[in-house]
Write a structure and sequence with these properties.
The chain starts with a strand and ends with a strand. The chain is elongated and about 65 Å long. The relative contact order is 0.16. The protein has 14 helices and 24 strands. By secondary structure, it is an alpha/beta fold. About 30% of the residues lie in helices and about 25% in strands. It has a 4-stranded mixed β-sheet with strand order 22-23-1-24, with helices on one face. It has a 4-stranded mixed β-sheet with strand order 2-15-17-16. Strands 4-5-3-14 form a 4-stranded mixed β-sheet, covered by helices on one side. Bound molecules: ligand EPZ. The site of ligand EPZ has 25 residues, from α1, α5, α6 and α12.
Length: about 425
């Protein structure tokens, strides 16, 4: 397995282009199953998770090609089976996103239950309950979700009013995709408001869906007979943006992130300012200047959008680890998303864990150490810690990083970091 070798101590300087959003690309690729014609998607990030989703579509017989401009062309009409095997779903739990579209368009789906995950149990009960409320017959057999729309309603789901018991991003997305071809109106109450949900809604509308209220906690979908193909550009990745801004802050550097959208990052930008960073922004760029200054410790509490995102929690833990003062981080979304704290302790971080709260006393300097990535955002926080640690840090199991960050070593090297990938045996 590949490793990353990083020698810390250099302030990052320069510009970095942000890639398309992983968590918008994955539901949009799944949604192509709903169309009855070809779809072209641009600004798709080159990530392991995207490759896995493309592999899953291909396994079902969907035709997926990449054109000379690296746009993804999907022709769902060649689909042969509505089956998502465990071997792919275990690699990427977002594979569950094909369940709603397959059921809505073909009336049947056999999708492996996603297994456990490093950051939490992450059940899909809300996905399943919502589809059942829309008339699907679903049972779990040998680790698979076997879903049928039943022949009673000519193979179509029926619109329903669904109150989601927990704010769930992919749950909202799966049910929205199921509803666009259902018979009648569906209302999703307590829906997730993430920008990636809005991007999926905009993609579905471009295919002819009738959706109102995406981005609010109440989404109304009027079912239509069919959806046509379209061309669509994926939104920029707000979490990649936030990660590079923290990289600039933690190293006392000066970085501009381009091809991004400041509007999606209010909660994160406020916290960076609180940490002492100077920020400037335009329509599609954000610049952070922390030259000559040590970050101030800040408190963070994660919650669904528009509050502070759980996917930025680990990155801010790295910032607090070298900040001036004591910061607290409260994780309210997932039950086990502090593994990075244990690895950072090995680099000299002073962190106390009390349930879902981490109390971090900033130290003047972290020390390089061999560390291991455990999940996507935890691995990003170890990269950030290594960028500021004294000496050379080696990060193992960086396949976690490759799932969510496109060309991370090239992008960081472009900003002056001393980083290289060491091919694993
Ligand atoms: C999405 O995961 C993202 N993944 C995650 O990003 C992100 O951390 C998460 O939303 C929260 O923002 C994608 O979009 C592909 P949830 P998702 O359903 O949808 C509970 C990354 O780093 N829940 O919003 O799986 C669940 O246990 C990844 O890119 C149920 O109880 O998260 C959790 O506590 C990591 N039952 C809470 O809801 C359900 O049926 C929020 O989870 C579904 C969820």
């Amino acid at each position: 397995m590949d490793k990353l070798q990083i020698t810390g101590g250099r302030p990052l300087e320069g510009e970095v282009r942000i890639s398309g959003a992983k968590n918008a690309t994955l539901p949009i690729l799944a949604a192509t199953l709903l169309a009855d014609g070809p779809v072209t998607i641009s600004n798709v990030p080159h990530l392991q998770d995207v490759t896995t989703m493309i592999e899953l579509l291909g396994r079902m017989g969907v035709t997926v090609t990449i054109d000379e401009k690296l746009r993804i062309e999907v022709d769902p009409t060649t689909i042969r089976e509505q089956f998502a095997p465990y071997e792919l779903v275990k690699k990427m739990r977002a594979s569950i996103l094909v369940l709603g579209p397959l059921l809505a368009r073909y009336g049947e789906a056999d999708v492996s239950l996603p297994g456990g995950c490093a950051i939490g149990a992450r059940p899909v009960n809300i996905h399943v309950a919502g589809l059942q409320a829309m008339g699907a017959d679903i049972h779990i057999e040998n680790g698979y979700i076997k879903a049928r729309t039943g022949k009673a309603r000519a193979g179509r789901l029926k619109g329903a009013r669904l109150v989601l018991e927990t704010v769930t991003v992919t749950g909202t997305e799966n049910l929205m995709m199921a509803a666009v071809l259902a018979d009648g109106e569906t209302v999703l109450e307590n829906a997730a408001r993430e920008p990636e949900v809005v991007d999926l809604a905009n993609f579905l509308i471009a295919m002819g869906a009738k959706i109102r209220g995406a981005g609010t906690d109440r989404i109304v979908i009027e079912g239509v007979e069919r959806l046509h193909g379209c061309s669509y550009e994926v939104m920029p990745d707000r979490i990649e943006t936030g990660t590079f801004l923290v990289a600039a802050a933690i190293t006392g550097g000066h970085v501009r992130t381009k091809n991004t959208c400041p509007a999606y990052l209010d909660a994160v930008l406020l916290k960076l300012q609180e940490a002492g960073a100077k920020l400037a922004q335009g329509d599609n760029w954000i610049e952070l200047d922390m030259r000559g200054r040590r970050p101030k410790a800040i408190d963070v509490r994660t919650a669904p959008y528009p509050a502070f995102p759980t996917d930025m929690q680990a990155q801010f833990a790295a910032l607090d680890a070298v900040a001036d003062g004591v910061g607290t981080i409260i994780e309210t979304v997932f039950e086990n998303r502090f593994m990075h704290m244990l690895e950072m302790r090995r680099m000299g971080a002073e962190i106390r864990l009390e349930g879902n709260t981490a109390i971090i006393k900033g130290v003047p300097k972290l020390m390089a150490a061999p560390v291991m990535a455990t999940d996507l955002r935890a691995s990003a926080s170890l990269v950030l810690a290594a960028l500021v640690a004294e000496g050379q840090t080696v990060i193992e199991r960086i396949y976690h990083i490759d799932r969510g960050y496109e060309s991370i070593e090239e992008k960081l090297s472009g900003l002056g970091a001393q980083i290289r990938r060491v091919p694993g045996r």
